Amino acid sequence: MRDGAVHTGIRAKLALENPFDTYVHDPARVDKQGWNSRHGFFETVIAAAQPKLVIELGVWKGMSAIHMAGLMQAQGIDGEVLAIDTFLGSSAHLSTPGRRAELLPKDGYPTLYQTFLANVHDAGMQDRIVPLPMDGNSAAYALARLGVKADLIHIDASHEYESCLADLRNYWPLLADDGILLADDYGTWPGVTRAVCQFCAEVDRPLFGTMAKAIVPKGPNQGFVMRAVKEKSYRRGAA
Ligand SMILES: C[S@@+](CC[C@H](N)C(=O)[O-])C[C@H]1O[C@@H](n2cnc3c(N)ncnc32)[C@H](O)[C@@H]1O
After folding, report:
1. How many domains does one find in the chain?
2. Which of 21, 116, 207, 209 holds its CA 20 to 30 A away from the CA of 110?
3. Inside any domain, residue 1
4. Best residue among 32, 59, 132, 160 to mutate for probing ligand 1, ranked by most atoms within 8 Å of CB
5. Residues with Cβ within 6 A of ligand 1?
6. Residue 61 belongs to some domain of the structure
């Protein structure tokens, strides 16, 4: 173990191979670009949830997963992050001219996963971050069948209303009864904002939101105090 007594429970439970057993680090692939990856809410929800298991849906190059893993390490929490992504990018990487190049395709197939591995290795978080390269919908069904429950779930995959709402509905049952859901792009992407609001109405839970993140606690007695600060420079739909 590189950073103490971190358990590798979720890898064993899912019978996943450890990519870092065979991975050969390529420093040239390190690229620490992300979106909202160090948002202030992460520290708050990690401290509140004390997670043994975090599920992240929508990993990209790994920066929010690495940040959460680092916060757990700093707070002395023996927890891990199950990092779920196709590593194939989002609809915008096809519909917005020029963006497919961000996926660094090789032989016609994105190589984003190599960037993710390089970043996790560079951050020394190989024992805390367990990648699951899979589409979010299939992963949720499998995790439910395997009885996986997380203390914190970060949803940051699709930005379209219908698919974001589906993600929220699919992952809510995987959250422990006193767990916390964190939704990215609330307030910045209209489809996401609408999906989060509708979902909260469906499950009858309040949301605690700011630009780019919303906290949705599952427990009926959990709440968060917010501080409003005017943000002038925020660009809508930047991810
Ligand atoms: C905005 S990025 C995630 C950003 C990341 N959390 C960060 O902090 O930098 C969205 C990610 O969701 C992934 N994604 C989109 N739709 C998905 C799906 N249906 N299943 C799994 N991953 C998906 C994309 O591949 C992309 O990496």
Report:
1. 1
2. 21
3. no
4. 59
5. 34-35, 37, 58-60, 63-64, 85-90, 135-136, 156-158, 239
6. yes
